Amino acid sequence: MKILIVNSNEELAKAGYNWIVEILRTQSTPVLGMATGSSPMGIYKLMRENHLDVSHTVTVNLDEYINVPANHENSYHCFMKKQLFDHISFKKIFLPNGMAENLQEECLRYEQVLDEYPVDLQILGIGENGHIGFNEPGTSFSSRTHVIQLTESTRHANRRFFNHEHDVPTHAITMGIASIMKAKRIMLLAMGTAKASAVRQLLEGPITEKCPATILREHPDVLIITDQQALSLCSEESLYEHQQVFSISNLLSNSRMG
Ligand SMILES: N[C@@H]1[C@@H](O)[C@H](O)[C@@H](COP(=O)(O)O)O[C@@H]1O
Question: Is the ipTM here above 0.85?
Answer without folding.
Answer: yes
